[in-house]
């Protein structure tokens, strides 16, 4: 149904909830529209302090109103005849599994946890200018764990060498630890367009028992 889609809108991310309104993953706009078109999901949209639910058809209809009266409040994709707002949140209608309780230990999540900031000098760098450093070097028995690997810029990495921070006269700006939630979600939350995700990923929200 969608054709000639605006590239900028399709570059957006969408938070996916299970049917119990628990965040399970982040997907691109293309994937979100695919789920909506097949009636596997619905849009969850913040409106006047509450959340409204829309099928794909009703969301297309609501988008015409939003495009006319609040065009700057959304990102858009274009069809042959009209524009559709990119939803910020969708809810899977038939998926009730719980969110992953474990965060994958990988390079992408380590960079996201440290927000692309060298954990020794505190400066932020592009990913291409950062490396991953073993706080306690492998030569001294240091393991590849959340608590022993941090982002480091080239200068600090060379200065530290194969020593511990104490031996090199350096200090971590923050103690390394395993994140409780997927750190990429919090990276996206720094963007104003994703502020509506906050309620669904706050730790206190997960602690509420579903009745």
Task: Summarize it.
This protein has 211 residues and is of the alpha+beta class. The protein contains nine helices and nine strands. The strands form three sheets. It has a five-stranded mixed sheet. The protein has a two-stranded antiparallel sheet with strand order 5-6. The chain has a two-stranded antiparallel sheet with strand order 8-9.
Describe the structure.
The chain is α+β, with helices and mostly antiparallel strands and 211 residues long. 28% of the residues lie in helices and 20% in strands. It has 2 domains: 119 residues, no CATH class; 62 residues, DNA Binding (I), subunit A (Orthogonal Bundle), CATH 1.10.30.50. The protein has a 5-stranded mixed β-sheet with strand order 2-1-7-3-4. The protein has a two-stranded antiparallel sheet with strand order 5-6. It has a two-stranded antiparallel ribbon with strand order 8-9. β1 and β2 form a beta hairpin. α4 packs across α7. The radius of gyration is 21 Å and the shape is elongated. 24% of the residues are buried. The N terminus and C terminus are likely disordered.
Name the poorly predicted regions. 1-7, 203-211
- The whole-angstrom Rg is 21 Å
Q: Round the mean pLDDT to the nearest integer and report it.
A: 85
Summarize the biggest pleated sheet: 5 strands, mixed
Please give the order of strands in the largest beta sheet: 2-1-7-3-4
What are the key terms here?
two-stranded antiparallel ribbon; disordered N terminus; disordered C terminus; 211 residues; 2 domains; five-stranded mixed β-sheet; alpha+beta; 9 strands; 9 helices; DNA Binding (I), subunit A
